[in-house]
Specification:
It contains 17 helices and 20 strands. The chain has helices spanning 14-27, 40-49, 78-87, 101-108, 133-141, 160-169, 186-191, 217-223, 248-258, 273-281, 314-319, 338-347, 364-375, 387-396, 454-461, 470-485, 491-499; strands at residues 4-9, 30-34, 61-64, 96-100, 119-125, 147-153, 176-181, 199-201, 234-240, 263-269, 291-297, 311-312, 324-328, 331-335, 356-360, 379-384, 400-403, 413-416, 442-445, 465-467. The chain has an eight-stranded parallel β-sheet with strand order 7-6-5-4-3-2-1-8. A six-stranded mixed β-sheet has the order 10-9-11-13-14-12, sandwiched between helices. Helix 9 (248-258) links the parallel strand 9 (234-240) and strand 10. It is elongated, with a radius of gyration of 27 Å. The model has no long low-confidence stretch (mean pLDDT 96). It binds NADP nicotinamide-adenine-dinucleotide phosphate (NAP).
Length: 502
């Protein structure tokens, strides 16, 4: 078996378990029967049914019968497991049996007829990723089993390094399946195949995972393209915390795929930016040998990453935030693409030079907008609920402040840089009432969930032209793509990828 995405069946009802085997066979390269999700009697029925020609499964099958204390679903006494494997009569319908290390070592001392060429010797740690994985692999490789599987819990992204070291160590020895569970371990699941592991697991659908942090088969195959990525493939990603909500993997992976590039873009859940940069990113210190080309940087690391950047470009310096890292030779170069992402779509609709622009809100995105507008010599007023907070921004860009309530349409362009109207925050609300929109030529809402906010609906009703936040989201990502690859980004592809998922 080589370069395989394996889907575990985790159904607890016999009829759905049977049905899912055939569904999994259609979408995955191999199917893992999690026998411990059924009773022993039901599992025996499943194995027997696989001998029936019409039920025969064409893809490789792995059978697992794991006790609860090792991550399984049922309390299965050691002696019951021993009896199960001793009497097991299904060797001819399965490709592999996943048997835990304690049982493998016990079975190896018996005269039971075990088809060792079909045994994966497995070991799991659901609490952490210990430091002795290589010694453990060697012990497991010494058993008669054909394959070694080690799965641990990543509590922080740095734990992934030990999984990659393990895969490297196993080269030329017994095949290995190695992964780190949990969200910080995602990169081990996405990169394992390209680095030489035998398989990676993907769930049939969200909610059907057999372990935490397991992506779906579709994500592994179509989003991260784990089967196509080579050992030297280009790696990009976004660092943040949390990061699982980020739309950037959708946009950048769609772009890489459309250009047929040997590359992937991954979410990296990073809590400690210093140790991530040192261990994974900076070419002078990193411990992982990989072709990392660039990073997006999101909350809360846009400021804290700056001390680790060798060259910070002028815009990022002026904004005081880096949202893009490019690895150039032995150096890290930091950029901020939010400004161009925010203002370019505006430039395409209106000439802001001399135009009266109302910037609503005075946070991070307002800062990027004010910088872009000051370069274009727009006549800016910052409308905020807290004028004291807004004043430093106004001073920096030599603009005025005014209270949010005082906005009565006295602008050519109004830009919402607050979360008012955002899904999960205050969807349906608007920072400006519809009456105050009359006379405004263009209303730009930076929010992109929902794509059409209450503000944009009201603006259309008031006869204004409108621009939604997806333009900025895609615009800043397109500029990142250009910085990393030197290529014009396939903006339409990126737009479709992110819009379809809104
Ligand atoms: P931020 O730094 O937290 O700033 C938010 C600003 O909105 C602050 O000035 C805040 O005022 C103000 N505000 C918050 N709630 C308010 C309310 N109920 N009434 C009046 N003012 C309120 O956030 P940000 O990074 O600038 O992001 C703002 C929004 O822009 C986000 O919600 C996001 O949807 C959108 N955004 C979009 C993109 C894109 O790519 N399209 C990129 C970045 C941001 P206080 O300081 O008084 O709290």
């Amino acid at each position: 078996m080589n370069s395989i995405i394996c889907a575990p069946i985790t159904e607890t009802k016999l009829h759905t378990f049977l049905a899912k085997i055939h569904e999994a066979e259609r979408i995955a390269d191999a199917v893992e029967l999690r026998g411990d999700y059924l009773t022993e009697g039901e599992l025996t029925f499943v194995i027997k049914s696989l001998f029936v020609p019409s039920q025969k499964v064409q893809k490789p099958l792995i059978l697992t019968y794991r006790p609860r204390e090792q991550g399984g679903q049922k309390d299965i006494m050691f002696n019951d497991r021993l009896r199960f494997w001793r009497k097991f009569g299904g060797w001819n319908v399965i490709t592999y049996a996943d048997i835990e290390l304690d049982m493998v070592e016990r079975l190896a001392k018996t005269r039971f007829r075990i088809r060792w060429e079909k045994v994966i010797c497995s070991w799991h740690d659901f609490a952490e990723t210990p430091y002795d994985l290589i010694a453990r692999y060697d012990r497991m490789a010494d058993t008669p089993a054909a394959v070694v599987k080690i799965a641990t819990k990543a509590n922080r992204i740095g734990d992934c390094l030990r999984i990659f070291e393990l895969i490297e160590h196993a080269k030329g020895k017994k095949p290995v399946i190695a992964l780190a569970m949990g969200l910080p371990g995602l990169m081990t699941r996405a990169l394992a195949l390209s680095r030489g592991a035998m398989l990676t697991f993907g769930s049939l659908r969200p909610g059907a995972e057999s372990a935490s942090g397991q992506p779906t088969v579709a994500e592994l195959r179509d989003l991260y393209r784990v089967k196509e990525l080579s050992r030297d493939g280009e790696i990009f990603g976004v660092i943040g915390n949390p990061v699982s909500h980020s739309r950037s993997p959708l946009m950048h992976n769609a772009a890489l795929k459309s250009l047929n590039r040997d590359g992937v873009y991954l979410p990296f859940e990073v809590d400690d930016v210093a140790s991530f940069v040192c261990g994974f990113v900076h070419p002078k210190t990193r411990k992982l040998d990989w072709n990392l080309r660039g990073l997006s940087v999101t909350i809360p690391h846009k400021l804290s990453i700056i001390p680790f950047i060798d060259v910070v470009d002028a815009t990022a310096k002026a904004i005081g935030a880096v949202n893009t890292v490019v690895i150039e030779g032995d150096e890290l170069h930091g950029y901020n693409t939010d400004v161009i992402g925010a203002v370019k779509p505006l430039d395409e609709m209106i000439n802001v030079k001399g135009a009266r622009v109302a910037v609503i809100g005075a946070g991070g995105s307002a800062r990027a907008i004010c910088y872009g507008l000051s370069q274009r010599e727009a006549d800016v007023t910052i409308y905020a609920r807290d004028l004291k907070k807004a004043q430093p921004l106004a001073d920096e860009f030599k603009t005025r402040t005014a209270s949010l309530e005082s906005f009565k349409g006295q602008a050519d362009v109004a830009i919402n840089c607050t979360p008012i109207g955002m899904h999960g925050h205050s969807e349906g609300q608007s920072p400006i009432n519809v009456e105050s929109l009359k006379g405004v030529k263009l209303v730009y809402d930076l929010i992109y969930t929902p794509e059409e906010t209450a503000l944009l609906r009201d603006a259309k009703q008031a006869g204004c032209r409108t621009l939604g936040g997806l333009a900025m989201l895609v615009g800043q990502a397109a500029e990142q793509f250009r910085l990393w690859t030197g290529l014009e980004a396939p903006v339409d592809v990126m737009w479709r990828a992110v819009s379809m998922n809104s």
